[in-house]
Amino acid sequence: MGDPNKPDLRTINGVLDFLDYHQPTEETKPKYENINFQFKLMVQQIWDSLPEGPGKTVAIRAIGRARMECNSCIANGGQ
């Protein structure tokens, strides 16, 4: 059987839990803060390096999606 601390994505309740907001805990808060700090550094470098235009917008949005996936991974115990 799977890890009881991770949502079971084979069930509707597990999927709903996976998609729910997860309040930071003492254990997860430093991880979120580190991920967000690292992404801010990366965004600044990319922002300064790319020319203005739609490609820059797409790149910044992709970074935002990647950051959300990292935070989701933390919230959902690696799922």
In summary, what is this structure?
This protein has 79 residues and is mainly alpha-helical. Helices cover 65% and strands 0% of the residues.
SSE inventory with pairings:
Blueprint: H1 12-19, H2 29-49, H3 54-75
Helix pairs in contact: 2-3
Task: Write up what this structure looks like.
This protein has 79 residues and is an all-alpha fold. The protein has a domain of 49 residues. The radius of gyration is 16 Å and the shape is elongated. The mean pLDDT is 90.
SSE-based structural type: mainly alpha
Content of β-strand: under 5%
Number of strand elements: 0
Major beta sheet summary: none
Which range best describes the helical content: under 10%, 10-25%, 25-40%, 40-55%, 55-70% or over 70%?
A: 55-70%
The secondary-structure element order is HHH
Would you tell me the overall average pLDDT?
Answer: 90
The rounded distance between the terminal residues' Cα atoms is 15 Å
Characterize the overall form.
elongated
Radius of gyration: 16 Å
H/I helix tally: 3
Unreliable sequence segments = none
For the structure shown, list the relevant keywords.
mainly alpha; single chain; 79 residues; 0% strand; elongated
